[in-house]
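Page 42, continued from yesterday. The earlier attempt failed because a stray header line got pasted into the input along with the sequence. Redoing it now with the clean sequence only.
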Amino acid sequence: MHSVKNSITAVALRLFAFLFWFTVAAAAKPAPRSTDLTNIFAPESTPAKSIFDLSLFVLSITGIIFVVVCSLLVYAVLKFRGKPSDAGREPAQVYGSTQIELAWTVIPVLIVVVLFLATARVIHAVQDAPKPATALEVTVIGHQFWWEFRYPKLGIVTANELHIPVSDPAHPTPTFLKLLSADTDHSFWVPQLGGKTDLIPNRVNEMWMDPHRPGVFLGQCAQYCGVQHAKMLLRVSVDTPEDFDAWVRAQQQPTHDDEKVIAGRRVFETTACINCHTISGTAGNGRFGPDLTHLMSRQTIASGAAENTTAKLRLWIRNPDAIKPGSLMPAMSLSDPDVDALVSYLETLR
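This time it went through. Structure tokens are written below.
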């Protein structure tokens, strides 16, 4: 019996220590750095901060419940443990106590009501937030297995890397996203900027975020959508107002013909590339793959699966499965000269 008591005490202490250090780690927000990996404990926008605060509140309530229940359990085990003198005797039978019955009925009901009201308050604040006139509007379309971003008022179409301005509390510039799906269910999730919101075929969902600092924030699809769901990544570049304006101007510029890479453009326009991709000023007007008009302004290709370098771009064209097995990008089976010419042309698309 002594060993049982020690085991129960040890387990209770370990669980309590885990809960304590987990809460401390959650509350200790690290200094912001743009190179940080995704950190759910470092919210950088109002919706994410609201969700984070709610999670800590719920964790605190459930932690208190855990400590109380474990304490009562340990007390009961120690107080009413079996003794050699009790062998063969039936313990005293205690029947209903009105006070105890009321306590373990009313207290759980109150706890559930408090958690419900706190959660409903956050949901209302996030989902029903008014859209100011200064808000940026972006349409997000989920594809297997990449993201399309459209800026209707700016005439910009890009992919996988979302650029938005930082939102200064003195001059708020939140970004409101309209979420659509081109095929199956997806889920847009950038942990430091907001909660998960699903993209469902034939349905329009919405979310918003107002980043408090510039930087690059990582996210991905959070709903299984097929073979390459795990590599349906996305990057949100939060720019200063000046940098965002410069990015907008660059994206609005048309492509410039370069006589040195005319052979590569001809490869693009005379192969199946034009069936899936768009490049302004060319015959390519496809919608199944990302718009490539400003391909080289992006840091990654294949929805974040590889860096946007010459070597990776050549490999992606020649054998997409080497980077993203099961992707819907077909191997083009081009000759080496055609691949070289096409890559040279794509590298001019800035």
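Notes: The chain has three domains: 2-82+94-127, 136-252, 259-346.
Reminder to self: strip header lines before submitting.
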